[in-house]
Design brief:
Layout (H helix, E strand, L loop, with lengths): L1 H14 L3 E4 L2 H8 L7 E5 L2 E6 L4 H7 L4 E4 L4 H8 L7 E4 L6 H10 L4 E4 L1 H9 L3 H22 L8 H14 L4 E2 L4 E4 L20 E6 L1 E2 L7 E7 L4 H20 L6 H14 L11 E3 L6 E5 L12 E4 L2 E4 L3 E4 L2 E6 L2 E4 L9 E2 L2
Parallel strand pairs: 1-5, 3-4, 5-6, 11-19
Antiparallel strand pairs: 1-2, 2-3, 7-10, 8-9, 9-11, 12-13, 14-17, 15-16, 17-18
Pfam families: Creatinase_N, Peptidase_M24
GO molecular function, one term: metalloexopeptidase activity
Organism: Cytobacillus firmus
C-alpha cells in the first residue's frame, strides 16, 4: 500500500495538488487496504487519513495501519473538508466519475476557495500496472472459471433454462473458493446469444442452440473474466463458420500481444479478421479491456485507445460475432503482459464443444 500511496503523491507533486479525496470503494481499498463499505480517504503531502463511522473503526485500524483512522459522527464530507489542511484554498483532486454530484456540490460549498480537479486519470494510470499479488488473485479467479466450464459442460442439456445454468455456475464457483461472482453474468442461448450482454432468463435450452456463457470469479476483490460458446447437438454449417471466424480472430489477436503494442493495433488484428470475413458490422464492441478491482478498467482494446501495452497489465481478448435472429459467438481469455510477450491464464479448450443429450 505504501508504494501505491507514494505513486499517488508523486502525481500530486507533478500536478500541484495539495490533497486527494478518495471516495470510490475500489480506490479506497486499492490505496489503503480497507474493505469496509463506508468511508473516505484524504491523502496529503505529509498525512493520510481514513474517515469512517462507528461500525468500521476497528476494521479500518486493522486493515489500514498506515492511516490515521478518524471516526465521523457528523457529516462525512464536512469532516473531510475541515481536515483539508491547505488553508482551504489549495487544489483538491477527487474522482469526478465516482463522486455523486451532491457530494461535489457539498465540497464546493464548504471549500469555496479550493480548486477542485479530477484525479481519475492519475488513479487509472497507477492501477493499470498490476503487482504480483494482484496478478495471482486474477490467475486464481480464472482457474476457478476454467473448472466451472468443465463442470457446466456436463450440466447443460435440452429442457433446462438459462437461469439454471447461471445458478449452477455460481454455486460451483463459490464452492471452489470464489468470494463473489461477477454481477450480471451472461447466459444467452439460441437467438438470444446475439445479445452481447444478454443476462440469463427463463428461456429453455433447445437442440441446435448456441449457449454463450460470460462469467467471472472474484478472488480477494479482484475480477476474472471468461467467455465460451457451446452448441447443443450437432452444429449447422453456419454455426461452425461463425465459430471458426471468431476463434481465428481471437487466436491471432493473442499472438500479437506484447509490450510496445498499442491497444488500437491489437484491436485491429481481431477486428480485421472478422471484417474481412464479411461480419465487421456484427462485431460492435472493443476487442477487450483491462480489469482488476473493477470488471472494466483502463486501458481498453479499442480503435480509439493509443495506450501502449506494458509489462504487468492484465487484459481480456474477447472478439465476437452477433447476428440478430440467428445467434452469436464470443471467446474470451485473460492474459498478463510480460517483458517478452504475454502469459494466457485461461486454459479451457477453444474447440467447439458439442453438447450431447
Amino acid at each position: 500500500m505504501k508504494q501505491r500511496v507514494e505513486k499517488l503523491r508523486k502525481k500530486m507533486s507533478e500536478n500541484g495538488w495539495k490533497g486527494v479525496f478518495i471516495y470510490s470503494p475500489e480506490n479506497r481499498y486499492y490505496f489503503s487496504g480497507y474493505k469496509g463499505s463506508a468511508g473516505a480517504l484524504l491523502i496529503e503531502e505529509d498525512s493520510q487519513k481514513l474517515f469512517t463511522d462507528f461500525r468500521y473503526v476497528d476494521q479500518a485500524k486493522d486493515q489500514a495501519p498506515d492511516y490515521e483512522v478518524i471516526q465521523h459522527q457528523q457529516n462525512l464530507i464536512e469532516m473531510v473538508c475541515e481536515s483539508f489542511s491547505s488553508n482551504k484554498k489549495g487544489t483538491l483532486a477527487l474522482e469526478l466519475g465516482d463522486v455523486p454530484a451532491s457530494v461535489y456540490l457539498e465540497i464546493q460549498t464548504i471549500l469555496p476557495e479550493a480548486e477542485l480537479v479530477d484525479v481519475t486519470s492519475a488513479t487509472n494510470e497507477i492501477r493499470m500496472i498490476k503487482d504480483e499479488k494482484e496478478i495471482e488473485n486474477m490467475r486464481q479467479g480464472i482457474e476457478i472459471c476454467d473448472q466451472a466450464f468443465t463442470h457446466i459442460l456436463d450440466f447443460i442439456r435440452p429442457g433446462i433454462t438459462e437461469k439454471d445454468i447461471g445458478l449452477e455456475l455460481e454455486i460451483f464457483m463459490k464452492r471452489q473458493g470464489a468470494e463473489r461472482i461477477k454481477p450480471n453474468h451472461v447466459i444467452a442461448s439460441g437467438p438470444r446469444s446475439c445479445l452481447p450482454h444478454g443476462q440469463a432468463t427463463d428461456r429453455v435450452i433447445e437442440v441446435g442452440d448456441f449457449v454463450k456463457m460470460d462469467y467471472g470469479a472474484i478472488v480477494n476483490g479482484y475480477f476474472s473474466d471468461f467467455t465460451r460458446t457451446v452448441v447443443v447437438g450437432e452444429p449447422s454449417d453456419k454455426q461452425v463458420e461463425i465459430y471458426n471466424i471468431v476463434r481465428r480472430a481471437q487466436e491471432e489477436s493473442l499472438k500479437a500481444i506484447g509490450p510496445g503494442k498499442t491497444c488500437r493495433e491489437l484491436d485491429e488484428v481481431g477486428r480485421g479478421i472478422i471484417r474481412e470475413a464479411g461480419y465487421g458490422d456484427n462485431f460492435g464492441h472493443s476487442l477487450g479491456h483491462s480489469l482488476g478491482l473493477a470488471i472494466h478498467e483502463q486501458p481498453a482494446m479499442r480503435a480509439t485507445d493509443e495506450t501502449v501495452l506494458q509489462e504487468g497489465m492484465v487484459i481480456t481478448v474477447e472478439p465476437g460475432i452477433y447476428i440478430p435472429g440467428f445467434g452469436g459467438v464470443r471467446i474470451e481469455d485473460l492474459v498478463v503482459i510480460t517483458n517478452d510477450g504475454h502469459v494466457n491464464f485461461t486454459k479451457s479448450t477453444k474447440d467447439l464443444q458439442v453438447i450431447s443429450y
